[in-house]
Amino acid sequence: MSRLPKIENPHRKPYPSDLSDAEWLILKPCLPTPKGFGHPVEVDLREILNAIFYVQRTGCQWEMLPHDFPPYTTVYGYFQKWQRKGIWQKIHDQVRQQLRHDLGKDEHSTVAIADSQSVKTTEKKEPVRWAASPT
Known about the structure:
Helix content is 37%, strand content 0%. By secondary structure, it is an all-alpha fold. The protein is elongated. The protein starts with 20 loop residues before the first helix and ends in a 33-residue tail after the last helix. 7% of the residues are buried.
């Protein structure tokens, strides 16, 4: 079984971290649209997401992105801009709500779980002293 995503017409060899066509259809509406003025967008936003997910999945530095992705400065610029504008949170919330809806659950969770277990590791114990046995 292949771990590569299902992509109808790939223009490069896919990576396991690439978005499948189905995933792209879910995320595309969450991304900001061009304003209609100024410099036109010349990069493929799907490739920007693929590059960001590649860095996230592999843990490589931005500068070490493979050359078949857009330049790392462009990819990192989009990553920072989307983080500043709250796009990542919006994507997370929309995907989560859609998944909860598809599972037949309330789209807005009302339950929170807190784990209060703690382990004391700084407590010092006194050494055990053995009483001398009478001889």
